[in-house]
Write the structure tokens for this entry.
Amino acid sequence: LHAELEHVDSVPSHKLLPLARQLCARLSTDNDAFHAAVRRVVARMAADYPHHTLSHLFALCNADRTAPRTDRRSTLRSEGAQLEQRRSDAATAILHSVAGVSADLKQIVGAVDELCSAYIELAVATVPEKYRSSKLEGQLIKFDARLRISRLRSALPPALPVLTAEPRADAPRDYTSVPFVTSLADGYSLAGGINLPKILRVLGSDGRRYKQLVKGKDDLRQDAVIQQLFSVINRFLAPRDAGSQSGAAAGLRMRTYQVVPLTKRCGVLQWVDNTLPFGNWFRGNETKYRPTAPSMSQLRATVHAVHAEKAATAAQKREVFDRVCSSAPPIFRFFFYQHFHDPRSWFERRETYIRSAAVASVAGWALGIGDRHLQNILVDQTSAEIVHIDLGIAFDLGKLLPIPELVPFRLTREMVDGMGLLGLDGSFRHACQATLHAMRDNSRVVITILNVLKVDPLYLWSLIPLRIGKIHRNASMLSGDFEDAARASEDDSELMLLGEDASAAAEEENKEAGRSITHVGQRLSTGISVEGQISELIQQATDPTLLSRMFEGWSAWY
């Protein structure tokens, strides 16, 4: 390792940008050769490509700004807290050094600092009571004049970047591809859900209008790492040269979006335009395409009746599941008739849907992503790509729920209905195999990216028992509209219940991170053939006996 450190300063900064999050997580004020080299590399990256690096550094500096007081006190004495403090101190020192390089960089560092602080304050700001009704979702709520973002809006700094944009890595300190904020809306709207995330609208210097989702009381570091992995998987699947891929491997990709953690418990996400949750599409179209069938709420009530019976057997649940399925035939194929009217676009978009579903299924299984209910899967109305959101239930946490998740990914009859007459025996199976081949061939890269979780263990892992309880309580209250409550994060009152136990729980974080990474590595091992693995996963995902035992809020009959 020390021999390699001699050469690290010669690596161009742009080649290290994909690992900016991993490098920043390894920052420390320790004076050994390794940490000194990491500090030099990160400082050079921040000076050469500030708009790709500064948000990671400010997230470390601001890590505990939104943590409850009880959580802060209970972890102050832990070794993990001391490591975090050294990491934060190193990040702060790098920011000071970068700001001193030039007047331009000083202006950029100041602007990003101001923007991050404004977003953090907005994320935790209390929503006025009169706007909390779900009937008022989408209505503009004016900024409180006391908020930092309100003052920022009235006097925008010239170097204020659009945090959720994806600028190219051009030459060092070349900002021509970076969109800057030219105007901010004078308020926000609400997206719905337990924690009432806020939707912010921004106009960029590139002429694009950006919608951003500002979330509080939610650890987005896991979402950020998983989205980073999805982007890397897309690189695995991309052809190395024009015409080098054909058949099942052609056109494979996963739709991604930007996630920018600001602290341990808040962040901002890119809004995915032109998309619709599966649940919303069914609510709006089931009376049109199956007018005599029971409604969504009636179907759920039927399933709830048997699941509420503690003495209900697996056979009884299966019988009700089969009855519900037979009373409501699948209709998702009509989505493609609605949006794509000529034969060519209809066929191409259906193939895009199948391939994106295949990549998402295999990647989701490898990373243990759960909670794939109807509101957590979106479909793009222009490209038919599948988009997965709310990735907080990952690394097989879903198996620890009071009603464990039993299937590897969502492959219900409605998902299959959109794949046409050949269903799973068309391009879906082959696309799954191509994806798993690519992930196995590059498993070391996947593990390298996940190793950041050992250095910066997720906040939620020290709170797994509370988190599971909260998920179950909220999921059990899901109404027929399946609001996005199944993955609500812990609130401060529950953290108070932890008291001094939080410190002991935090000591287990690194072990939990190690177990999760090992499990991913095992799934990408070559112990079973790719074809056999995919066949087994498809069989499990479509098994009606397993689906009939899934939690009713998951809506396994859709």
The chain has a mean pLDDT of 86. The CA atoms of residues 238 and 547 lie 34 Å apart. The beta strands are 141-142, 181-184, 187-190, 198-204, 209-216, 259-261, 266-270, 275-277, 377-380, 386-388.
